[in-house]
Amino acid sequence: MRYASITSRLADLGSGKWTLHVRARQLKASGADIIELTIGEPDLPPDPALLEECQRAMNAGRYRYSNGRGEPAVVAALTEKYRRRRSGVTKENILCFPGTQTALFAVMFGLAEAGDGVLVGDPLYATYEGVIRSTGAHPVFVPLNPQHGFHMQAEDLEKAVTPECRVLLLNTPHNPTGAVLTPEEIAAIGAVARRHDLWIVCDEVYEELVFDAAFASPFDNPDLAERTVVVSSISKSHAATGFRSGWAVGPAEFTERLLPISETMLFGQQPFIADMTAYALTHEIGTARQMRESYSHRARLTIDGLAGVPGVSVLPPEAGMFALIDVSGTSLSGEAFAWALLEEEGVAVMPGSSFGDTARNFLRVSLTVPDDVIEEACRRIAALALRCTACRERRA
Ligand SMILES: Cc1ncc(COP(=O)(O)O)c(C=O)c1O
Prior knowledge:
By secondary structure, the protein is an alpha/beta fold. Helices cover 41% and strands 15% of the residues. It folds into two domains: 5-45 and 287-395, Alpha-Beta Complex (Aspartate Aminotransferase, domain 1), CATH 3.90.1150.10; 48-282, Aspartate Aminotransferase, domain 2 (3-Layer(aba) Sandwich), CATH 3.40.640.10. The protein has helices spanning 5-9, 19-29, 48-59, 72-83, 100-111, 128-134, 154-160, 183-195, 252-265, 271-282, 287-305, 334-345, 371-395; strands spanning 35-37, 94-97, 117-122, 138-143, 165-171, 199-203, 228-233, 246-249, 313-315, 322-326, 347-351, 362-366. The strands form two sheets. It has a seven-stranded mixed beta sheet, with helices on both faces. The relative contact order is 0.16. The model has no long low-confidence stretch (mean pLDDT 96). Bound molecules: pyridoxal-5'-phosphate. Pyridoxal-5'-phosphate binds next to α5.
């Protein structure tokens, strides 16, 4: 049978990046002692008040068809949230989606097509290449340098731009590196976007999980208002990944043009999820604060746990739920180290190569497990690193 070309374009961009994770799950199911540090799933449950609100809404009959833009209460809550960040935001700027991922997919379909280039930092979140390629556009990678803490530099962006580029896909705070762009970096990046008339799509799903740095966004810069679209959700901020509740916020003309795409694909969001999201956005909920505290503490435990271990060093994350470990000093690639770590020490981490070429010498570890598990994982990582070093010295 014949298939549309999108199936070939995405064939290698789906579950292939998760091969090690799948293998770890198989080993675990067969009884092996595996520490799993692969996925970014918050380890807290959502606040009980959110579950109650969902239940209340369902009992009140809030399970019928919605509309493409979003239920009035959640649209009002989002308008308020983003008006606090930039004046003049109205409900015409908001579109609700089932999660950031769907928002990204729809937004990219509205902005890019075959022949277009989409600029994106490398390393990058695992689904971005698929999102870009599904439209027929191609990614144009902007290397993010560990020497700059993986912060995108305007000069590197300028060097990467080609005449086909239409969109810059930004991610701050960044997965997998935990980098948080500064207002100055955003202003410089924004100047490049203006010069080349690029849209800026900014994925801010980790906005609430910034440790000590200050969050900044192109959305908050009035000079970039006409070209910036934010995508985000309550997945990480409220430990509510499975509820699938997100949004896009952009210029009114943009949301109006996107609305038919959203309606064609989704036919609206579930009203009971919308009510719960409106509740989450308008009440003081402590989940993000708790996660910020435990993830920054566990990042510190990882740094301390691997301090002085030959061949490995931890890049301190500024935000999010992951830490990157540079293993280049062990003379193994991130991929080889990650597989050896699983087979020999029973620790599952993501090879940096799952997030692009620039991260090939890194491992990404998830900080969403208890402190003592992080400490044990560090002991096992250190044991493998020591064996690698001893082996290298014997060969030398
Ligand atoms: C950078 C980034 N964007 C988007 C997502 C998906 O978010 P959502 O659950 O809102 O679809 C993730 C999930 O890990 C992520 O890390």
